[in-house]
Design the sequence.
């Protein structure tokens, strides 16, 4: 932050915050003794005795104030590797401070790189020495776009679990995925729907279900939904046709009376 007025205001806000925490009220004292403040170093334990010392941890006349920022790409198509390469190029641009500014790279992506049509490909420069390829399959003649690794999905779940999950998918059961990592939810959801080719999943598809929409799990229709396990606790519906998969522990709960996949033993041996 280069604006000195903003830096000075932040120092004032920190001083006000510390004054409130170190007030003589009994409730404030208990809160001070139990918690650290996020604006101070982690090793610093705030007490009434150290309140004045804490105010000197940030001095806008000597210290530099940093603000956390992030850049995210929102894509209509799952070009995962291209997005990763572009973000890596932005990081290199910021780190190396090259002749081309960060804003120029972002402008190029937004206004000069167009998504190729079905059956076509496009190669563009993410960074001076990093060429990236965008390729869209045609609607019928080619395999669907899958920029996730099938090998990674099989390594995550195992062959038996994948075959059981694929059986539920073919029978249009309700499928609920749960994981502590968003990437795993997208990985399994995208890979499983791609394995349906030449068929497609025509029902509800929400790989990452927001916390505010958890009531959608009560929908009496086939679906593929993903839940982040670190969110608020919810009641998993106990439906007869629900397939619940914990991606972190490889635990799968199958629907009632699920038939076995044809030639499952031979197929498992070939995939293992």
Sequence:
């Amino acid at each position: 932050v280069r604006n000195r007025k903003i830096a000075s205001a932040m120092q004032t806000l920190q001083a006000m915050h510390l004054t409130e925490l170190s007030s003589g009220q009994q409730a404030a004292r208990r809160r001070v003794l139990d918690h650290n403040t996020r604006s101070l170093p982690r090793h610093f334990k705030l007490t009434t005795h150290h309140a004045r010392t804490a105010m000197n941890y940030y001095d806008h006349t000597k210290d530099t104030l940093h603000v956390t920022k992030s850049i995210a790409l929102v894509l209509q198509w799952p070009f995962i590797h291209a997005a990763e390469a572009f973000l890596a190029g932005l990081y290199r641009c910021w780190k190396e401070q090259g002749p081309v500014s960060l804003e120029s790279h972002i402008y190029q992506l937004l206004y000069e790189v167009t998504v190729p049509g079905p059956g076509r490909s496009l190669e563009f420069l993410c960074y001076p020495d990093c060429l990236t390829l965008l390729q869209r399959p045609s609607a019928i003649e080619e395999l669907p776009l899958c920029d996730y690794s099938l090998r990674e999905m099989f390594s995550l779940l195992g062959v038996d679990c994948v075959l059981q999950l694929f059986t539920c998918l073919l029978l249009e059961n309700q499928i609920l995925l749960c994981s502590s990592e968003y990437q795993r939810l997208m990985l399994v959801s995208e890979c499983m729907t791609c394995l349906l080719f030449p068929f497609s999943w025509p029902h509800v598809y929400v790989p990452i279900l927001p916390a505010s929409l958890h009531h959608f799990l009560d929908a009496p229709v086939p679906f593929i939904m993903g839940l982040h396990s670190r969110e608020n606790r919810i009641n998993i519906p106990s439906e007869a046709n629900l397939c619940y998969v914990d991606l972190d522990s490889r635990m799968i709960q199958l629907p009632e009376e699920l038939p076995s996949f044809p030639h499952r033993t031979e197929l498992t041996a070939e995939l293992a």
The first strand starts at residue 121 and ends at 127. Residues 28-37 have pLDDT under 50 and may be disordered. The two ends are 55 Å apart (CA to CA). The first helix runs from residue 4 to 21.
